[in-house]
Structure to design on (173 residues):
């Protein structure tokens, strides 16, 4: 599937009742060692998911590794090493708490397999000082190179200076 965009009206609720796979050739052509470019732009979805999802089932998932207070800028991306024992069997989430004074973009790239990335929009930190930073949630396992390689390191690039108040690798569900 390519170029799918869902734009429900503001304030509306949308429920996907079912999804059916019509034709499957995935395993025939893509083995575990296959590499290809996969550059995804999630726009504001990583902001919407943890802030407006009524069920928040992802919050019940196990935190596998966490880091805090990492500065990130266009000239100094953050390299996060989750270690060698990352469980990818159920997929993984990256949960971020970000403090940014400007609207910008973040790009996540697997360090050892840089042919894929996830981009998303970061909103300026509008909450008063002393309150929680802005939350973002990304299903990092949507990247083929994350799931099918031994890469457990992420590069987090930002188009403007920001602080990664918290970075969590979480088990999928």
């Amino acid at each position: 599937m390519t170029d799918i965009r869902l734009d429900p009206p503001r304030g509306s609720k949308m429920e996907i009742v079912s999804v059916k796979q019509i034709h499957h050739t995935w395993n025939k052509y893509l083995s575990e060692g296959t590499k290809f470019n996969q550059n995804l732009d999630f726009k504001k979805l990583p902001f919407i998911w943890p802030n407006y999802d009524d069920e928040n089932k992802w919050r019940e998932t196990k935190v596998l590794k966490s880091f805090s207070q990492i500065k990130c800028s266009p000239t100094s991306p953050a390299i996060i090493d989750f270690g060698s024992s990352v469980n990818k069997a159920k997929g993984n989430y990256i949960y971020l708490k970000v403090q940014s004074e400007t609207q910008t973009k973040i790009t996540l790239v697997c360090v050892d397999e840089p042919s894929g990335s996830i981009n998303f929009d970061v909103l300026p930190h509008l909450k008063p000082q002393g309150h929680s930073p802005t939350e973002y949630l990304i299903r990092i396992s949507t990247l083929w190179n994350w799931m099918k390689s031994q890469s457990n390191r992420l590069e987090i690039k930002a188009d403007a200076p920001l602080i990664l108040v918290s970075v969590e690798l979480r088990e999928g569900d």
Remarks:
- The chain has a mean pLDDT of 84.
- The chain is about 10% helix and 35% strand.
- The longest strand covers residues 63-72.
